[in-house]
Automatic annotation (TrEMBL):
<dbReference type="Pfam" id="PF03995">
    <property type="entry name" value="Inhibitor_I36"/>
</dbReference>
<protein>
    <recommendedName>
        <fullName>Peptidase inhibitor family I36</fullName>
    </recommendedName>
</protein>
<dbReference type="InterPro" id="IPR011024">
    <property type="entry name" value="G_crystallin-like"/>
</dbReference>
<feature type="signal peptide">
    <location>
        <begin position="1"/>
        <end position="28"/>
    </location>
</feature>
<keyword id="KW-0732">Signal</keyword>
Length: 120
């Protein structure tokens, strides 16, 4: 049988483990994890988060979910995200600078593919 002091100490020691476990989880809605690029269906980081990937690529946003439905972007990486109007990185749309958040894309619902680069 545990004494109250031992039980209390065990509870306190378990708390840091819980905190560390949460640190690796995805960020709150509307934000992207470090090193990732995220894209949402609606402006202001609302609606379905169709893209949440490590900034690299190339990436085609496939299927009807996300393809030509991107309205806001969070680039939480240290590279530029170059966006395209078509699959296979064709039809240049524009760039998102490193660590830039765009609540409403200037060309709404047109992004189909993207890649991370050191330049725009």
């Amino acid at each position: 049988m545990r004494t109250p002091i031992v039980a209390g100490l065990a509870a306190l020691l378990a708390l840091p483990a819980l905190t560390v476990g949460l640190a690796g989880e995805a960020q709150a809605d509307g934000y992207c994890r470090a090193g990732h690029v995220c894209m949402w269906e609606d402006s202001n980081y609302q609606g379905s988060r169709y893209v949440d990937v490590v900034a690299a690529g190339p990436y085609d946003i496939d299927g009807w979910d996300g393809d030509n439905e991107i309205s806001s972007v969070d680039n939480a990486s240290g590279t530029y995200i170059v966006m395209f109007d078509n699959d296979d990185l064709t039809g240049f749309l524009g760039c998102v600078a490193p660590h830039q958040r765009i609540p409403e894309l200037w060309r709404n619902d047109e992004v189909e593919s993207f890649i991370a680069r050191d330049y725009c």
